[in-house]
Design a protein that fits this description.
Elements lengths: L1 E5 L2 E5 L1 H5 L6 E2 L15 H14 L7 E2 L9 E3 L14 E4 L5 E2 L7 E7 L4 E7 L7
Parallel strand pairs: 4-7, 5-6
Antiparallel strand pairs: 1-2, 2-3, 6-9, 8-9
C-alpha cells in the first residue's frame, strides 16, 4: 500500500491494482475538515467535498459515480456518468467503462474493490452489516 499526499489530503493506493492499470484510491479523513464528506440528504451537504475530490485528482466531477447506500444488497451496473439520485438504495456498483470512478463510502463497514484484469471490469462494494447477512 502506498500513501499519497495531494495538498493537505491523504489517499491510499494498492500496488497490485496499480500494476493492473486500474486507477483507484481510498481517501482518509486527513485534510477534509468536515463531517459527512460525500453523503447527505441533499447535494448542498456534500457537493463541495466532491468538488475537492475531483480537483485533487484533476478529474471531472461527472467521472465520479456515488450510490445512495442503504446497507442493502442491490447491485447496479454503471455504463455512463450518473448522479446519486439516479442510483437509489444501492450498495455495489460494477462498470467496464474506462474513465468512470465508481465510489462507495464507509465508516465502520468494509469497502471491497474487485477487478477482473481479463475483462477490465471493476466492482466497488459497500459491505455493511445488513448486506453481509443476506
Amino acid at each position: 500500500m502506498e500513501s499519497i499526499e495531494i495538498g493537505d489530503k491523504r489517499f491510499l493506493q494498492f500496488s497490485n491494482l496499480e500494476k493492473s492499470g486500474i486507477f483507484h484510491f481510498t481517501s482518509t479523513k486527513s485534510g477534509w475538515n468536515g463531517n459527512a464528506r460525500f453523503t447527505g440528504d441533499s447535494p448542498k451537504f456534500y457537493q463541495s467535498y466532491r468538488n475537492e475530490l475531483s480537483e485533487s485528482f484533476q478529474l471531472q466531477k461527472e467521472q465520479f459515480v456515488f450510490p445512495r447506500q442503504v446497507h442493502g444488497n442491490k447491485v447496479v451496473i454503471v455504463d455512463s456518468p450518473m448522479d446519486a439520485e439516479d442510483i437509489p438504495e444501492t450498495d455495489a456498483l460494477i462498470t467496464a467503462q474506462p474513465n468512470l470512478c465508481i465510489c462507495i463510502q464507509t465508516a465502520d463497514c468494509v469497502p471491497i474493490l474487485l477487478f477482473d484484469p481479463a475483462k477490465k471490469v471493476a466492482a466497488a462494494i459497500h459491505a455493511g452489516w445488513r448486506g453481509n447477512c443476506w
